[in-house]
Amino acid sequence: MDETTRQAARQWTLAQPAVSAFVTSVVRDFGDRDDVLQDVAVAVIESFDSYDPDYPFVPWAIGVARNQVGMYLRSRRRDLLVFDDDTVTCLAIAIQDVEYEKSTQFDFLYDCLGTLESRSHRLLELRYQQDMKPAAIALRVEMSANSVAKALQRIRDRLRECLERKNVEATQ
C-alpha cells in the first residue's frame, strides 16, 4: 500500500462516523445505505489526491458523500420519501457542525477527566472500559455496591458540571 492510500485510509477511518451519520440521515433503507456508504468510501479513496490537507478532512469527505447521495437520490426520484437537494445540503452542514462540536466536547472531556483523582479514574475505568457493573466493581475495590453506584453518580455529575463550565467559557 502506498503512502497516499495509507493516509487516505487513516483520514477515512476518522471521518467515517460523521459521514455515516450524514448518509444515514438521508438514505433510509439499510441495504441502500450500506451500498451508498461503500460507494462514498471508494470515492474518497479514489479522489484523495484532490483533497487539500490545509482544510479539515471531514467536511471534504461529507462533500464527497453529498455527491454520492445525490446520485443515489436521482436514481430514486420516483420514490415519495426522497429529500430534495436543499434538505441534503442542510443535513450535510448540520452533520459537520455536530462533528466539530463532538470533537470539542472530547477535548473538554479529556481536560475534565484530568481533574479527577486516581480513585475516580479507577472507578470509571472499571465501569466504562471494562464494562463492570457496580456490584462487580464493589468486590474489586472493597466498597459496597451502593457506595460504588453513588460514587459513579458523583463523578458523572462533576464531569457534567465541568463540561458545562467549559462550554460556557468557550462561548464567551
TrEMBL record:
Source domain of life: Bacteria
Keywords recorded for this protein, A-Z: Sigma factor, Transcription, Transcription regulation
Transmembrane segments: none
GO molecular function: DNA binding; sigma factor activity
Pfam families to which the protein is assigned, alphabetical: Sigma70_r2, Sigma70_r4_2
Residue ranges annotated for the RNA polymerase sigma factor 70 region 4 type domain, each copy included: 109-159
Keyword Hydrolase on entry: no
Keyword presence, Nucleotide-binding: no
Span of domain RNA polymerase sigma-70 region: 16-78
GO terms (BP aspect): DNA-templated transcription initiation
Family stated for the protein in its record: Belongs to the sigma-70 factor family. ECF subfamily.
Name by which UniProt lists this protein: RNA polymerase sigma factor
